[in-house]
Hints:
Keywords: Membrane, Transmembrane, Transmembrane helix. It is a multi-pass membrane protein. This is DoxX-like family protein. It is found in: Membrane. It comes from Aquimarina litoralis. This protein has one domain (about 5-120). Helix 1 packs antiparallel against helix 4, helix 4 (about 45-60) runs antiparallel to helix 5 and helix 5 runs antiparallel to helix 6. The protein is mainly alpha-helical. Helix content is about 75%, strand content about 0%. The protein has helices spanning about 5-20, 20-25, 30-35, 45-60, 65-85, 95-115.
Amino acid sequence: MKKAxxxxxxxxxxxxxxxxxxxxxxxxxxxxxxxSKVGLEPYGRIATGIVELIAGILLLIPKTVWIGATIxxxxxxxxxxxxxxxxxIEINNDGGILFITALLTFILSGxxxxxKRREVKFF
Length: 123
């Protein structure tokens, strides 16, 4: 049970990150709207998708979990910042679901990093 919870958290965060890629990589209108509003369309949308893909993969590899969690905290922290400063909580009448998902992802990544803190290597 003690090993199952961190694995489940890693899988949840990886699924959240990876499932959003289809919106970013297919130029879904909502994704284009968001990145246009913050002035990062299209390069920021694509770059963010690539970084989220890398983070999602790293979260699933046992030796790189802490790196994936750290990258996720950075990229999702940026998303939360953009919600709070430029986008607002609600995007295109979504009821705030993107913001709530970002908060959940950020919190779970923080928990994962805390669990794996002994594995963090400094260069």
